[in-house]
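Ticket #4471: structure export looks truncated?
Reporter: QA, pipeline team
Priority: medium

Steps to reproduce: submit the single chain below to the structure queue and open the exported record.
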Amino acid sequence: MQNLLRKDWLPLQRRFTPYLFLLPALLVLGLTVFWPALQAFYLSFTRYDLSQSPEWVGLANFQRLWNDRVFWKTLGNTLLYLIGVVPILVIAPLLIAILVNRKLRGINWFRAAFYTPVVISMVVAGIAWKWLYAENGLLNQLLAQFGFKTGIPWLTSPNWAIYSVMAVTIWKGLGYYMVVYLAGLQSIPDELYEAAAMDGSDGIRKHWDITVPLMKPYMFLVAVISAISATKVFEEVYIMTQGGPRNSSKTVVYYLYEQAFQNLEISYACTIGLVLFLVILALSILRIVISHERV
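Actual output as written to the record:
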């Protein structure tokens, strides 16, 4: 009888043992991620501003969001950020990776130089670029040397502010995605390039015929990661422009922060966060669907 019980217990033990190892991590995630997310979802249907208990209001916050011009402005800025940053971060790091993927003396120094912005804190980078963008900063002084009498208001003009912040995001991301592409390039056998050279595909054409087709999974991965990062951009805006001038560089995440921590409208901020979550979820689902189609 005891032997039979042991035989019945062993399959169950093997089945549930992995979950016992996962239990501590699941508890931490539940307390720090899942439970706060459920609370934020609930608060998006209430009126809550820290001075009173949550009061159920149904879809009132979503109706307010629908009629909020500032929210639509920030959503437009976020989409503009997405369109302006992602294509560059998909193409430019690949070109850099191709350049530094050569067996040349001292090439590791060039790789380190391109990767250096990644390890620099965004706070430090934002402050440094803010100095560069200043009215009497280095960029305007360089323009003056080329005959521009008046400098460009990089961060103080509604026409320039968001593009100036985009440049910092691109500068920070080039090295990171370059490393992703380098991993893919170094997995391509040299024999393919040698065979292509025998067929007359050499120079730039070999990258178009071999490198780009084989790097498409990496390019798609970079596109999705950079798109999600661009959707959640905050530090650059907070440090350099704080959403100004006239909301021209304000993104959805910064608007959420503004409502939650400056205006103390927690429930409205949760509503904005829920919309942002749905946008990011759509991007993630799109990535999964396209990945399965490619497979």
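Status: closed, not a bug. The export was complete when the record was re-opened. Leaving a note from the reviewer for reference: Residues 92 and 174 are 7 Å apart (CA to CA).
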